[in-house]
Amino acid sequence: MNGVRIRRQAAQADKMTQQEAISIGDGRLHEPTETNKETSENIFLFYPNIIGYSRIVLAVASLYYMPLHPRTCSLLYSISCLLDALDGLAARHFEQSTRFGAVLDMVTDRCTTACLLVFLSSAWPRWSLLFQGLISLDLASHYMHMYATLTMAGSGQSHKKIDQSRSRILYLYYNNKNVLFAFCALNEVFFIALYLLSFSSPILSPSLLQPLPNSVGSSVQPGNPLLPNPSTLFASPYSAGALELARANKMDSFWPWVIAGISFPVMAGKQFINVVQLVKASRWLAEGDIQMRRAQGLPRKKE
Questions:
Q1: Is the bond preceding residue 230 a cis peptide, omega within 30 degrees?
Q2: What's the rounded Cα separation, in Å, for the pair 206 and 200?
Q3: Whole-structure pTM value
Q4: Per-residue pLDDT at 35
Q5: Would you tell me how many other CB atoms lie within 10 Å of the CB of residue 70?
């Protein structure tokens, strides 16, 4: 009797298992599936990030043409900068705003501007200290601002979300898209104008082959002809002097001067904003340090 009872229980359990496997709708047997499995997304292939990669490609191409091809370089560099606005529109349209995309966008902006300023430092050595200072200010202010935002406001906080009580200037700068675009665009336009002037203006890029006044048949270097062949002056065609000679009087300077004059006030305002951003971020970090030290009971009273 016990054996029969065990067989009946086993048959009943097998029948219940088969009934559980039958679908309620069509009566067919179905294999168990993972219905709650989350669909994975490739953040690196989001449309805004793809636009960001294209910006990098265009920036690298502009650097390749930068020493001797001002028109091609300016066109590629300008397109790369204009795509900065397009990736933001794509991020909002496709709901693909990501922290990776925000950092990629900021790093691309800083690197492209720094590369252009490095070239301007070599094109105008007399102003190299100023250009080096602008590079340092740009990198330092944005790094401090980003780090302060992540540390004090949390990892989910965007560096563009500024409380008006903390800084009204930064609030207006980051929360008004038209203001942000105008400052960033005209800042780059000013540096592009300076780049073009290095191919045209004798004031900023003087000729290397000026004959001595009141000299006939003589030259700066004794034993050389008065107007020697440029190819014989420099041991390397890629030296600073050879490149400056190749850039001399390659473009008309009228429009670059006009563009530089119009965009200069905005560029100066952008540098002032960088100073404000650096100072505010430093103070914000200092406030966090004070709170942390108080929580740790520091400074300890000396007995």
A1: no
A2: 10
A3: 0.77
A4: 45
A5: 21
